[in-house]
Sequence to fold (512 residues):
Amino acid sequence: MPVVNPWIIAVSVMLSTFMEVLDTTVVNVSLPHIAGSLSATIDEATWTLTSYLVSNAIILPITGWLSNHFGRKRILMTSVIGFTTASFLCGLAPSLPFLIFFRVVQGACGGGLQPISQAVLLESFPPRDRGKAMGFWGLGIVVAPMLGPVLGGWLTDSYSWRWVFYINVPIGAAAIIMTRLFVFDPPYIRRSSEHVDYWGIGMLAVGIGALQVVLDKGEEKDWFGTHWITALALVAIVCLSAFVLYELRINHPVVHLRVFKNRSYSTGVFMMAILGVGLYGSTVLIPLVLQTLLGYPAVQAGIAMAPRGLGSFLAMPLVGIIIARSDSRKLLAIGLSVCALTLIQFSRFDLSAGYWDFFWPQLLMGLSLGFVFVPLTTTTMDPIPREAMGNATSLFNLVRNLGGSIGISVVETLQARQQQTHISILGAHVTPLDPDVQAVMRQIQQAFAIEGSDPVTAGHRAYSAVWGMVLQQATMMSYNDVFRLLGVLFLAMLPLIALMRKPKAGGPMAAH
Fold:
């Protein structure tokens, strides 16, 4: 195998990873434009998001098997070429079905990019430098989802929604060239002629696909109040349960689940799922607060999210350097604690919060995520042998993405439920007999009367204005409740760190 500078390899795989992760969020703000351009409703247009996530989730866990069966470089090249081509065709889409079809192709090709690039990085760097490699790789995983809405909004407003897809073409072309020149399969990966686990692949595809649709559409469709959501949930439970039992019994499983016997790995994967819940959940909540309550336009809301990405951008390379000299578990504890405190800080905001009130907690959260992501990844992967790395990284990335989907669904549902609760509580005090309500009503009525409204109309408008105030306060309080819960969730992960073993040789990912 040719000797290549590992940082050149890092840049090669980072390009494709960044491109793929960016596409999980970059399309979101373009949905109204896509719907209008292709004569579809917003609800129909959201299938461009769901179709991508479903096909992506199906491919993720079998990436390790695909790499061993066909060769890692071959799969990586195929994935990048397929993703880039599908992106270009998405931009050309003349109709919504055409767009959805190539989003499926795009998601399927993109599913293998994250675990393969992570496995390549972990194997390309010597043990003392693997923390730096994970810090560099983590930039794409953490920063790209935050950059996506800003970039998507700017491209859509300045040019067209089609450029949200076209932007992938030059990045993909560079990734293809660099992968072809600088990435090579390690000696222990050879094209295998093992028995193909068709039953396992089938059950996994159906189960993961059904689960992803349930998570993506559940809150929108009132969860189990919708028959097809209930049916898909049952399909997911049955298929995934049967898949686990089947994979543990056969000799050549498509996914090696016995890797979970390792305590550090299984604990790290569980923590990554919880991290996905908190990270993606808060990433959804903050723009909603900015746009629905504080009146920020979409692009400005995206810009207001930028400090978190900036904090991660600064912290991850730094953590990658110091992790080789420190116990990564201590860094992880610091990161989780600070992240929890920033989420609790978000739970104290009110309707008078300004840009700088959001700036500093988000910057601090971004910094803390660097202290979470890099130590968690390196500690989790430390005990995994090189030949099992592809399988382990596939499951690790799958769980993070599923955790993100669960987080988005849960926070949206909790926010809606808590909003109704607070409306009931606050609304019970808004009566004509309450002195405070009477005082506010008189002030508003006087303002409307000055505008020329007759007394009856002014009274109705005043009552509507008071009810609007109640609704806003209830909504803000519901967001605060969810932020507080996410903060507690991060604190609850701290005891789990004790279950993880310290990485060997005083640094992450000791050689095996």
